[in-house]
Specification:
single chain; alpha/beta; TIM Barrel; 9-stranded mixed beta sheet; two-stranded antiparallel sheet; 12 helices
Length: 297
């Protein structure tokens, strides 16, 4: 199954659905869906509600392997079930979609113009659990706010340090050093980031394969060299606060890059929609993101 996932994620047409809202971002995701904070009183109740939302998305007819290559999950989602199967098994067996797991513990405080990842002391145990749950790959996010060369170097160093542990465990890491779309130094920061990424890619051993999840750049095709690198499985783009229309338009100008959208995927979904309305909204979103991932300008 893992070999099939690898070939499909590497070469298939489609995109990666990001369904990995964590404890910090879940209230916002639920609110956008129409579930306000007064609807739950504990964290467990909150995660049950977000799992209901994710289940509704994943089981929808439009959420299929013709359009979607992979889906990124949160830890609780990995350990939850859909129609009697663990989520990763449901994705792989019922949908033919590769499951990924968010493994970071959130962001540290801003320093040197960036936010590194908090330490991940439980990474080894989490990777063992991910393999037991038949997870294909992982994702970890840090954020760049300024064109600070020292800070950006440290972020990329940290990302690839963890990526090494993940590849050693037999999983495919998605390296995600996001550049804040509101940064006044966005273009300069992206140029520094690209140079640091390429340095690390060139040092990877032949059996060390990674994916990159990057902010849609100011310069079209900035990451084209990365998309062609032999150690890169796929380059995917985050929506980062852009609307779906904005993100899709930017994506079309980046050859070899496919979407890995979260908010831009779910922005039109509401808890009070009928199944017909919900499925139609999701279908339109999936088809538009697929089109921008596949058809370039």
């Amino acid at each position: 199954m893992r070999e099939n996932h690898f070939d499909n994620v590497s070469n298939g047409k489609g995109f990666i659905a990001a369904l990995d809202q964590s404890g910090g971002s879940t209230p916002k995701a639920l609110a956008a869906y129409g579930v306000m904070e007064e609807a739950y009183s504990t964290e467990d109740e909150m995660f049950d509600l977000i799992h209901e939302m994710r289940t509704r998305i994943i089981t929808a007819p439009a959420f299929d392997s013709e359009h979607i290559l992979g889906a990124i999950l949160f830890k609780q989602t990995m350990d939850s079930k859909i129609e009697g199967k663990y989520t990763a098994d449901y994705l792989a067996e019922e949908k033919g979609i590769a499951p990924f797991l968010k493994v970071d513990n959130g962001l540290a405080e801003k320093s040197k113009g960036v936010q590194m990842m908090k330490p991940i002391p439980n990474l080894k145990d989490m990777l063992v659990r991910a393999n037991e749950r038949h997870i294909f790959g992982t994702k970890m996010r840090s954020v760049i706010h300024e064109a600070n060369a020292e800070g950006i170097k440290e972020i990329v160093d940290q990302q690839f340090k963890f990526a090494k542990e993940i590849t050693d465990a037999g999983l495919v890491p998605i390296v995600e050093p996001e550049v804040n779309i509101h940064s006044k130094e966005k273009e300069e920061a992206e140029n520094i980031l690209k140079d640091e990424i390429m340095k690390h890619l060139d040092k990877l051993a032949e059996d060390e394969k990674v994916m990159l999840k990057l902010t849609l750049p100011e310069t079209p095709n900035l990451y084209k060299e990365a998309t062609e690198h032999p150690r890169v499985v796929r380059v995917v783009a985050l929506s980062g606060g852009y609307t779906r229309k904005e993100a899709n338009e930017k994506l079309r100008h980046n050859e070899g890059v496919i979407a890995s959208f979260s908010r831009a995927l779910t922005q039109d979904l509401r808890v009070d929609q009928s199944d017909e309305e919900f499925n139609e909204s999701l279908r339109k979103a999936i088809e538009s993101i697929y089109d921008a991932s596949v058809n370039k300008k």
